[in-house]
């Protein structure tokens, strides 16, 4: 799965561009704050949370959630 990282600096219109990409590419828009929060709450690495959200977690990662 491709990953597109967008900046959200004031005036950059990054959020607007991200929403257009989400619509055109038909991929989910995920905010890093959500990943950080889930990782902290679940006591997992951020990479594991990303794999869980992508549906690519292995058996051991799935059982830790």
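Q: What amino acid sequence fits the structure above?
A:
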């Amino acid at each position: 799965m491709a990953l597109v990282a967008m900046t959200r600096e004031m005036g950059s219109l990054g959020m607007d561009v991200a929403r257009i990409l989400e619509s055109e590419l038909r991929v989910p828009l995920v905010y890093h704050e959500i990943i950080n929060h889930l990782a902290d709450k679940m006591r997992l690495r951020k990479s594991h949370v990303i794999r869980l959200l992508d549906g690519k977690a292995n058996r051991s990662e799935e059982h830790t959630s």
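Q: And what stands out in the fold?
A: Helices lie at 14-25, 32-42, 46-54, 59-63.
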